[in-house]
Amino acid sequence: MPIGVYVCHCGLNIAGVLNMEELKRFAESLPDVTVARDLQFSCSDIGQEQIQKDIAEFKLDRVVVAACSPRLHEPTFRRAISKAGLNPYMLEMANIREQCSWVHMDQPAMATEKAKDLIRMGVAKAALLRPLEPESIPVSKYVLVIGGGVAGIAAALDMADAGLHVFLVERRPTIGGYMALLTDVFPTNDCSICVLGPKMSEVFNHPDITLFTYSEVLGVEGSVGNFTVSVIKRARYVDEKLCKGCINECAGVCPVEVPSEYDFGIGKRKAIYIAYPQAVPLAATIDPKACIGCGRCEQACPAQAVRLEQEPEDIKLNVGAIIVATGWQPFDASRKEEYGFGRYRDVITTLQMERMLNASGPTKGDVVAPSTGRIADSIAFLQCVGSRDATVGNPYCSRICCMASLKNAQLVKEKYPETDITIYYIDIRACGEGYEEFYLRAQKLGINFVRSRVSRIEEVDGRLFLIFEDTQTAEIKRVHHDMAVLSVGLEPEKNAEVLGNLLGLSRRPDRFFEIAHPKMRPVEAHIDGVFIAGCASGPKEIPISIAQGSAAAAKAIKLLHKGTLELEPTSAYVDPDKCIKCKLCVDICPKKAISVKSPAYVDEAACKGCGSCAAACPVDAINMRFFSDEQILAQVRAATFEKKESPLIVAFLCNWCSYGAADLAGTSRIQYPTNARNIRVMCSARVDPSFVLEALRRGADGVLIAGCRIGECHYRDGNYQALQRVQVLKGVLEKIGLNPGRVKIVWCAASEGEIYAKDLREFIAELKAMGPVGTELKKLKNNRNEGEA
Amino acid sequence: MPEDKAFKNEVLRLAGSEALTCIQCGTCSASCPTANLMNPSIRRLIKLCLEGRKDEALHNETLWLCTSCLLCTVRCPRGIRPKAVVSALKEIAGREEKKSKDASYEELFVKQIEQNGRIAELPLTAEFLFVFPQGMVSSMQMGLELLPKGKIGIEIDRIRGRDEVKRIIEELRG
């Protein structure tokens, strides 16, 4: 296997420190190397042409470029060799700039020796490279949107307009979500349903949207590009197509009245009902829990749409991507017993206030105290009910309640100028365009603000009293109000929990769905092809939910519009003869890409190549196509072939953060000792304990494993898995008689070059104190001998 | 007044570092049944500790008015234990022998229990009035009302197993 090695001068960046002639001669001496050259700038056209010429002339079948970081120019050289007819994956780079010449500028001789080792490691790995073909799979141009609130509606419309076909699944009998129930919305106080209503009917009439209301997702299989989804459409006992939505005919004769969930308990509906006049689809639903089966509606319906014998329908959908827009649910205010919600009639929630203020709500827009039915003279708004509260397990801020109360207070004040309104708050959070001005407006309208969290509400003779400390005057007060509005926080929708498990979505400590990266990937889930929009990933106001719906739509369009998907050929694969079906890999895979169907099977479309399964497999039945066990072991052996350093460290750096940190140390010219020989892996979880043991066995004095900071792993929790393995490994070393301190795991972000250098310096000092590897074994032996003597 | 960091850290060590997360919302003060007698309020007391204002935090009646009902601790939205802050301050005050009338009363109370296993109202009040003679007149008035109703024990009763009570108190004192 003829290998070509190219040592790059990079102007003086490398050649200014390292001895290029020596490196070239060293490379020539390595096994399988047919040609070795030093190039001024290997990435330039001249450099690339030289490599291509050699491939043709010497029939090279693999190439090693010793130059800058592969994170910079690996794509360049892959393109160059593939133009010359080689498979692009037959390239290996030795990083002798960022991780050698730039960080050891004052020790050129040692740096040259380190560069030799890095080249030897590169050639050793190159000898084991295999051609890989990126696989292209056809993908479905259908998309599933789960949740018909404002985020789901925005996503569905954008995708349908762009030419994808959308299936929109909504659990309730109508789309619209919570936004459809609100009165005017902040910060402009425009009517909520007036802006949302037209979008809802657009969804209904769009030729490229298939709407499933009163339906739920029961199962999801497959992976990005090709999901199979089972949906159940529950029986609404009314033919959706025949129903004209006149509702008075059927509901007028229905004898059963129950509290309406769309009015949060302050209004009523019949057993046959339409949620609200603007519902989409505008079709009645019979509530099977309330219906007594008298059949009067059936007789009354002029369109003969009532179907009391209707059965639920099972539907199978094939989609390429899934957008989760399952939204939120209000905090259950009765959990805060000290506020008496559910016991005191005049204590209500924000959502009940919204319905009261709504012109089509149960009071037709009048704000009345429920106990008396009279317009309230004084109203208190209590902020942070079920948010910022450790006692109910919701330490987070719900983000919209301050603004919602400011808005409702204004609406009440405008309607009833004589009403006295007080907002009790801990902090007013008005961060958004026009929000602070909105707060100012409320103050100018004469709304009172008391900085206090109300401790409890008492009812004495039907009158409410609030007890609180006004923290600005340090007075404990007991004040009467006719009505108290609890500003309830947002919690993740409980009904979405099962769905989250079906899809394999992870949750943050606040129980909302976790996105792939808290800043850079705001609408992507950890699972490829699944996107999250709106309040499913945390409390959000309407404009942001819409923006997220559109962002998720753009991501899905980008994924599916070509109709095919190219897969990185770097996935894991299983040797079926070795697999013992222990399912360890199934549990640890962050992408849910492995299933055990006797034997284990890796879905290569879902696999991202982190390699944690390969490290975890107890019988080594899983291997990686890229960064294979053999390749990494070859690098370890090459690194320890000749021991030029004391202590000698073999370091495994994860591709995303710590390798980036080591590169950054280079670009920042942070100087540190030459002791480490770095091996790039995709994730710290890739490090198989056998790699570490092999390194120590071959004479490395220490092994460093570096991963992303805890909580910032690019594969969700690979660094935790690495940590766990290192802890077990330390126990093993102790058993053997080696100092467990010889293996060390550290965390650094890609921005922390200085921390990487500091960790390395510390490790070197620790290893120096321990002495060369095996010192402890000799001591142990001597002790034993003494004991015997 | 300069910040007394050592004092602040000692309070946090004894009462838990959650106190650092206080948002001064006043839930604790407004929940407190004796809040109207307290100055500073429990909320202010926590702030004084966090600012390391040792003298103000230790020299007040608030500490000694706490009835340990724990409503503050149950309701605190940050999971702070304001009652634990009060206990910490009492402990520090005790260590530094910062005497106030209530602290002396508590001390005499415990001393009697240690000696006799229970308290006798008259001797306890008498002993306390030595430390706090200003209270003489009002105590006399109350005493004259209570005495005929048999609400005041004059004789010192001693229980059996006083040694055990003594041991318990010693153990608690550490």
Q: Which features does this protein show?
A:
heterodimer; A: 789 residues; alpha/beta; Rossmann fold; FAD/NAD(P)-binding domain; Alpha-Beta Plaits; five-stranded parallel beta sheet; B: 174 residues; mainly alpha; 2 domains; 11 helices; 59% helix
Describe this structure in words.
The complex is a heterodimer of chains A (789) and B (174). Chain A has 789 residues and is of the alpha/beta class. Helix content of chain A is 32%, strand content 23%. Chain A is built from 22 helices and 38 strands. Chain B folds into 2 domains: 5-95, Orthogonal Bundle (Fumarate Reductase Iron-sulfur Protein, Chain B, domain 2), CATH 1.10.1060; 101-173, no CATH class. Chain B has helices at 5-15, 27-31, 42-50, 54-58, 62-65, 71-75, 82-95, 101-116, 121-131, 136-146, 162-173. In chain B, α1 crosses α7, α8 (101-116) packs antiparallel against α9 and α8 packs across α11. The A-B interface holds A 338, 384, 388-391, 426-427, 452-456, 467-471, 474, 476 and B 23-27, 29-31, 35-36, 40-41, 43-44, 74-79.
Query: Level of helix content of chain A?
Result: 25-40%
Please report the total strand number of chain A as a whole number. Answer: 38
Rg of chain B is: 19 Å
CATH top-level class of the largest domain in chain A: Alpha Beta
* Number of DSSP helical runs of chain B: 11
Tell me the CATH superfamily of the largest domain in chain A.
FAD/NAD(P)-binding domain
Let me know the largest β-sheet of chain A: 5 strands, parallel
Mean pLDDT metric of chain B: 87
Oligomeric organization of the protein chains: heterodimer
CATH fold type of the largest domain in chain B: Fumarate Reductase Iron-sulfur Protein, Chain B, domain 2
User: What string gives the helices and strands of chain B in order?
Assistant: HHHHHHHHHHH
Query: In percent terms, what proportion of residues of chain B is strand?
Result: under 5%
Shape designation of chain B: globular
For the termini of chain B, the CA-CA separation is: 33 Å
Tell me the number of structural domains of chain B: 2
- Ends distance of chain A: 57 Å
Q: Work out the number of β strands of chain B.
A: 0
Strand order of the largest sheet of chain A: 10-7-6-18-29
